[in-house]
Amino acid sequence: MRRSSYYRHKILKLIFIYFFVILLIASIIAPFFWLIVSSLASLKDLVAKPLHWIPRHLNLERYREIFLGQIGISFRYALRNSILVALLSTSVSFVLSLLAAYSLSRFPGKYRSNILYVMLATYMMPPVAILLSLYIMLRQIHLVNTIWGLSIVYCSFLTPFLTWILKGFIDTIPKEIEEAATIDGANRILILLRIVIPVAIPGIIAAVLLGVLMSWDEFFYALIFTSTNKAITLPVAIAQFTKRHSIDYGMMAAGGVVAALPPIILAVLLQRYLIQGLTSGSVKG
Amino acid sequence: MLVVAGIVGFPFIKTIYTSLFNAPLIAYTRKAEWVGFENFIYAFINPSFMGGVFHTIYFSLLSISLNILLGVLTAMLLNQKFFGRAFVRTLVILPWALPTVVNAVLWRWIYNPTYGALNALLTQLHIIQNYRDWLGSAGLSTMTMVVLADTWKNYPLVTILVLAGLQMIPKEIYEAVKVDGANWWNTFWRITLPGVRPALLVALVLKTIDGLRVFDIVYLMTAGGPASATKTISFYVYQEAFGFLRLGQASAFSVINVTIIFVFVIFYIKFIRSEGISG
């Protein structure tokens, strides 16, 4: 008797789990499915009533337009700008934050933990609070509406964030390895290059990945600081496009798919590092 | 350090300074004049800006609760053993990796009053009779729909954080309390929740900051409308500065925004310290 009730309990639990797993999968996939369908389906299918969930006519016309056509011109510029800004801002803040994280982790100092608080405080600061003054500063050095100007601004929020993540990883490297190298006559820079960096590779991948994802996603600064094909990034291009051609939802969906593919591919391929990076600072408290 | 202080610290001080002036955006048309705290007084007696404060707090409270609730539930689900778990864990990351702009455009399309997928789905399931304008009401329901779209993209971060916390709880503890005869509810309150406390606190702080400074998704989905029903504090800053070109007033609004965020964060830090970091 007891055994059969035990099994019944177990089966109920399994049904319960699978029910919610399927619900979860459906809730995640459905919007993605609709985004992709909308980018491929003919306009006739999209405005049909009752709606055709499985479109009758599929074509790649909109993707051709984005990569080769007239409407896609500013989109292609934006794609280039987004890639450049992501690479530029991430690499500059990576170098800065690697040095900062290493020194915060290794050198003794009274105000060290305060400095980390300051770095976190910069994350608290909403972009609107510094936006106006930044705009005036950038205008004075003629960097408004340039890739360089936007990259500098992105460094302001990437550097503290990457420092926080990298410090979490460097803290876990035992000091003894470095001490042995010091006795052998290596200096700090050599130790950093030859010992710390190779050991901290997972942390470095995580930090760089998050940096690229964050600058790819950023919209507010880009909206204010860039305005023409010379410097607009993908989020701004999509927002502008939505304003201009607000009727053509299929085109918006196609642009969305192209803008979403790089971060999604990166996140899936490097998910192990991504999760390590996101949780490294938090789980320890 | 200096770079960060230069890029973030200096502009903020400049912003506080500007908030005391009646400064136009284009400086050479008119000189900025000193107005003291007039900009702040204006902010507090201005009903539409106070409405913006209310919208911001509504957005934050709703999105924090939904994020934490869904995050904890999905993390607990993904911590169970089932077929295809690794696949689902990867799947959960996808919405989080979707750019905010794409998310906003996608949901605006789903909510579309005449061709939207949500209307079609709910009508075909006979849940609603007629197509609705989900983002068209001047009440709080429009903001609620925006929060739902935002939560769909962002709660996976909470899931990832909480799941990492759950995996740190040793299995032996669960087996031990099972032998002692504890029921599911007790186990949840006494063991699971304390185990994920640090992760929850981090999620709470992050979501609070994100909520109180929200701009992107509101700007992209509703542009503050209809009839200012979804304008948040940061939206008013944007509007004052780049719509009305009143830099002083915009700065005062943004100083108020930062103050609200600081009050919350200091409260959290006090809370975390008073309970001990061990958690």
Describe the structure.
The complex is a heterodimer of chains A (285) and B (279). Chain A is mainly α and 285 residues long. Chain A has two domains: 2-59; 63-283, MetI-like fold (Orthogonal Bundle), CATH 1.10.3720. Chain A is built from 14 helices and no strands. The longest helix of chain B is centred in the first third of the chain and has 32 residues, at 47-78. The radius of gyration of chain B is 23 Å and the shape is globular. Chain B has helices spanning 2-18, 38-45, 47-78, 85-97, 100-110, 117-124, 141-167, 171-179, 184-212, 216-221, 233-243, 247-275, and strands spanning 21-22, 33-34.
Which helices and strands appear, and what pairs or packs with what?
The complex is a heterodimer of chains A (285) and B (279).
Chain A: H1 2-40, H2 43-46, H3 61-68, H4 73-106, H5 112-124, H6 127-140, H7 147-170, H8 175-183, H9 188-199, H10 201-217, H11 220-225, H12 234-244, H13 249-269, H14 271-283
Helix pairs in contact in A: 1-13, 4-7, 4-10, 4-12, 5-7, 7-10, 7-14, 8-9, 10-14, 12-13
Chain B: H1 2-18, E1 21-22, E2 33-34, H2 38-45, H3 47-78, H4 85-97, H5 100-110, H6 117-124, H7 141-167, H8 171-179, H9 184-212, H10 216-221, H11 233-243, H12 247-275
Quick description:
The complex is a heterodimer of chains A (285) and B (279). Chain A is an all-alpha fold and 285 residues long. Chain A has 14 helices and no strands.
- Beta-strand proportion of chain B: under 5%
- Structural class, from helix and strand content of chain B? mainly alpha
Whole-angstrom Rg of chain A: 24 Å
* Total of domains of chain A: 2
The CATH topology of chain B corresponds to MetI-like fold
What's the helix-strand series of chain B?
HEEHHHHHHHHHHH
* Terminal CA distance of chain A: 47 Å
> Which strands sit side by side, in order, in the main sheet of chain B?
1-2
Question: Judging from the principal axes of the Cα atoms, what is the shape of chain A?
Answer: flat
Count of distinct strands of chain B: 2
Category by helix and strand content of chain A: mainly alpha
**Largest chain-chain contact?**
A-B, 79 and 84 residues
- Hey, roughly how much beta strand do the residues of chain A contain? under 5%
**In CATH terms, what is the fold-level topology of the largest domain in chain A?**
MetI-like fold
Domain unit count of chain B:
1
**CATH architectural group of the largest domain in chain A:** Orthogonal Bundle
What is the β-strand count of chain A? 0
CATH superfamily of the largest domain in chain A: MetI-like
Largest sheet properties of chain A: none
- Main CATH class of chain B: Mainly Alpha
